[in-house]
Structures are given as C-alpha cells and as structure tokens.
Design brief:
The protein has 4 helices and 2 strands, in the order H-E-E-H-H-H. It is an all-alpha fold. Strands 1-2 form a two-stranded antiparallel sheet. Helix 1 packs antiparallel against helix 4. The two termini are 27 Å apart.
C-alpha cells in the first residue's frame, strides 16, 4: 500500500511532467535537426565558402540552414534537453539557460540576416524564427518549472 510520502512524490513528478516533456521535445527536435544536418552534402566544414563562410542556400534542411557550427549548437541543445528532462529542477535551469542563450543568439541572427555580412552560422529567416520561438518557449517553461520546484520545496519543508 502506498504511503503518503510515495503519493506526494508521485504528485510532485506529475506536476512537473509538462515542463519535462517540453524540455525532452526541444532536445529531440534540435538533436534531429543536427542528425539531418549532418547528412547534407558538402556540410563538412569548409572555411572558404559555404557553411563557415557566407550564407549558402544549398546547405539547408527543409527551410532551415545548416552548418557545422549550427550542428554543434543543435547537438548541445538537444543532448542537454534530453538529459535535463529527467528532473523538474534540471528542466528549469536548462530552460533558463536556453532562453538567455537564444535571446542573444536571436539578436545576432536578426543582425546578420538583415545586414547579410559576417554570418558564420549560415542563418536564414526560418532559423531566426525557430530561435525566437525556442527562446519564448524556454522562458515560459523556465518560469513554470521554477514555480513547480518552489512549490515542491515548500510542500516538503511545510512552508
């Protein structure tokens, strides 16, 4: 027969499940973009033209541009998202870091796509929108996750 501690533990996990699922989904999507980007012909990392040089439309997956630098970023975001989905507290920190990181990267993305020079990531407007949506979603997940962690902490301490 389950004890009250087991029930409260299960209830705490259930309350954090939507945020953990969001972190997992973000991780899987970004890891999938990385894996698909790896198979784009010529995307091995040229330093003259192409992925590391200027914007090259032939290096794209669906509507998103790819490059070795974007693949590295997608791998990092993907793996960390999958790992962070194990606990709500990890999800909160992951989402906060992603929101802050993508805020800066989105500003950079808008600048280089608008001006068209200095683009080391081979970005396009679809990438900018993806990063802005990821940033906004991560901010929401972070806020809700921290609220859940605080509520769980208060429930355990009796505050």
């Amino acid at each position: 027969m389950p004890t009250s501690t087991d029930q409260s533990s299960a209830e705490r996990r259930r309350h954090g499940a939507p945020m953990r699922l969001a972190a997992l989904a973000t991780g899987v999507v970004y890891l999938l973009l990385r894996v698909i980007g790896f198979f784009v012909p010529g995307n091995a990392g040229s330093t003259s033209a192409g992925p590391f040089g200027t914007h090259a439309t032939q290096y794209s997956v669906l509507i998103f541009s790819v490059s070795p630098l974007l693949n590295a970023l997608h791998t990092l975001i993907g793996v960390l998202g999958i790992v962070a989905a194990r606990k709500v507290s990890s999800t909160a920190i992951y989402a906060l870091v992603v929101a802050i990181g993508f805020a800066g990267f989105s500003a950079y993305s808008v600048l280089v796509v608008s001006v068209g020079t200095g683009d080391r990531f081979n970005l396009n407007w679809a990438d900018v929108i993806l990063h802005l949506v990821t940033m906004a979603g991560a901010a929401v997940v972070s806020a809700r996750s921290f609220r859940t962690v605080r509520a769980q902490r208060d429930a355990v301490t009796g505050s």
